[in-house]
Amino acid sequence: HACIVHEREMMQRKIIHRKSFWILGVIALWWFLCIFHFISSNPSQQQTQRSSLVTQLSSSINPKSDPKEACDGKYIYIHSLPTVFNEDLLSSTCNEVMCNKYINGGLGPKLEEEEEEEEEEEGSVGFSKHAWFSTDEYALEVIFHSRMNQYECLTNDPSRASLIYVPFYGGLDIARNLWGTSVSVRDHLSEALGTWLRAQKSWSEKEGQNHFLVCGRMSWDFRRQTNEESDWGNRLFLVDEVKNMWNLLVEKSLWHDNDFAIPYPTDFHPTTMAEVENWQARVRKKERSSLMAF
Questions:
Q1: If both were cysteines, with which of 161, 224, 245, 283 could 211 make a disulfide (CB 3.0 to 4.6 Å apart)?
Q2: What span, in angstroms and rounded, lies between the C-alpha atoms of 117 and 62?
Q3: In the 8-state DSSP scheme, what is residue 213?
Q4: Whether 167 contacts 86, CB under 8 Å
Q5: Would you say 73 and 64 are in contact if contact means Cβ atoms under 8 Å apart?
Q6: Cα gap 26→5, rounded to integer Å
Q7: pTM, two decimal places
Q8: Which of 203, 141, 128 is nearest to 171 (CA)?
Q9: Which residues pair with 214 in a beta bridge?
């Protein structure tokens, strides 16, 4: 008799647990739908600015090739930062092993096709010697700066610019200080950048809302929440003068609308659509027994 009572109690507990699980699931779903409806029906001013920046930056980075086309609405001003914020950081990465790591405008040294593959596909147009480089995955800020210096709608007058670019190599800065350094060392250049920006008239007019920077690392490398030595990263994105700026980086934060994600650089840097199509055709001919996704 005691065994029967015990079994009944166990069954009742299971039923109660199942009911509780489904009730909690329904409540969670309801809250999710409410939040989703609120976000969808009430776009914030920051979301509107975000959409505007995407359009603005897209047209700025890819201007029409027609030299007669006006640059109105596409001018970009590049701050002339002291070299300690970029060139010196680039020089500090040079050692006996990696001194050519960021040559060719950040793309790195050119890659050559292996001899056996050349023999296998003699006459193949799939491999373009001009499009392949040994590119470092964290080289985004160096590549972007090099490309921006070639942009045809640059202006020397910040008042004419739709966007103002701050060429600070924040990724290179934090990479050299992530391990074994104090928080004061990690934050030194970030705070110095804030001080420099505040002294610029172009920054004070909009408090950085029309400024942007590019970093070749993930958002959380620049959002240290405490001053504990064991906490990760620095406070670049939390510096007062940087808070209002737009951040282009390889991994964004989902909780900060001023972050924009840009894909990690690869080794393939085509300059024509033909190079892309030739490579696609070559890959399709390869016998691939397995696929990998990251």
A1: 245
A2: 35
A3: E
A4: yes
A5: no
A6: 32
A7: 0.74
A8: 141
A9: 248
- What is the total residue count of the chain? 294
Task: Give Cα separations from 252 to 86, 138, 209, 220, 239 (angstroms).
Answer: 22, 14, 18, 8, 17
Nearest C-alpha neighbor of 139 from the set 108, 96, 116, 162: 108
The whole-angstrom separation of Cα 74 and Cα 60 is: 5
pLDDT per residue over 164-183, tens digit each?
A: 999 999 999 999 998 889 99
Confidence category of residue 39, pLDDT binned at 50, 70, 90: very low
d(CA 61, CA 29): 41
Six-digit token string for 283: 């890959």
Residue 142 confidence (pLDDT): 95
Which residues, 6 or more positions from 277, have their beta carbon under 8 angstroms from its beta carbon? none
Which residues does 94 contact at the CB level (< 8 Å), separation at least 6?
Answer: 101
Q: Are 74 and 151 in contact (CB under 8 A)?
A: no
Q: Measured at the alpha carbon of residue 152, what is the angle toward residues 261 and 59, in degrees to the nearest 5?
A: 40
Query: Got the DSSP string for 249-269?
Result: EEE--TT-TTEEE-PPP-SB-
Backbone angles phi, psi at 163, to 5 degrees: -140, 150
Q: What is the DSSP letter of 220?
A: G
Backbone angles phi, psi at 211, to 5 degrees: -100, 150
Q: Which of 53, 219, 212 is nearest to 148 (CA)?
A: 212
